[in-house]
Design brief:
The protein has one domain: paralog of FGE (formylglycine-generating enzyme). The chain starts with 8 loop residues before the first helix and ends with a strand. The chain is globular, with a radius of gyration of 18 Å. By secondary structure, it is an alpha+beta fold. A six-stranded antiparallel β-sheet has the order 1-2-3-6-12-7. It has a four-stranded mixed β-sheet with strand order 10-9-8-11. The structure holds calcium ion (CA). Calcium ion binds next to loops.
Length: 298
Amino acid sequence: MNIRTARSPLARLREREGPAAAGGGRVRALTRLGFDSPPSPASGRGFVCLVLAFFALPVQAAEELIPCPTCPPMAVVPAGRFVMGDAKAHAGAEKPEVTVTIPRPFALGRTEVSFDQWQACVDDGACRGDLDDHGWGRGSRPAINMTWDDAAAFTAWVGKRSGLTCRLPAEAEWEYAARAGTTTGFWWGNAAGTGNANCRDCQGGTDHPYGSRPAASFKPNPWGLYDMNGNVWEWTGDCWTPNHASASTEDPRTCRDRVIKGGSWYYFSTMSRASARAKNDARVWSYNIGLRVLCELP
Ligand SMILES: [Ca+2]
């Protein structure tokens, strides 16, 4: 799907929000996210910024949505179909392969939620202000050490600020976005290589850097998403199941064990593959786990 030529979900959003939102948008070309610049000043609920983002590898344009002036920049993920899981995986939890249809485009945070982005929610009184950064610093590093409920509160705040329905991504939505149209273990191939991500064996040599890296330290995937592989695990909205082919029968509002995706700086690259999955008690925070926000598009 070429989202440059299709009638985009952002066009529908602007129609819904009216002329004020349409007038508040802007178009610019960029090659990477810049975290040194403060958010552009703007006012009003429903602020929408439309950006045509051009990426060098591969050549492709994607739409970017900034749902509110202090909300995380998001990429528009197109509707489509993909094969979830890996029949050749060592871990049984990644089997079997199943074909999943994503019926509608959605917006997904271009990065893991950073401490700076989290702070905006704290300043609005909607998020915990005492997340431990483990001594690594805050700023553009991914926010860590939050429970699943804390993570869900951040997504609800983005929803309140933007007027959209925002939440944690479902496991299938997360894997679809991480694959970005590719079928290999990582979007760049089946080998982790070096310099592509932050994980235990992704850096080359024996001096593995301890801890997280600032968001967007590595190349984005073809859909403009950074650090889907590695850096910190990301909470999903799904309850844990032994494999992804069977839906959980637990209450999705209260289940204890949640699926986390993407691996982290601490784990070997096999856990950073798109199909890899693990569980974490929703009440337990970790310096290995952060989040990424999804917003549904009208
Ligand atoms: Ca990650």
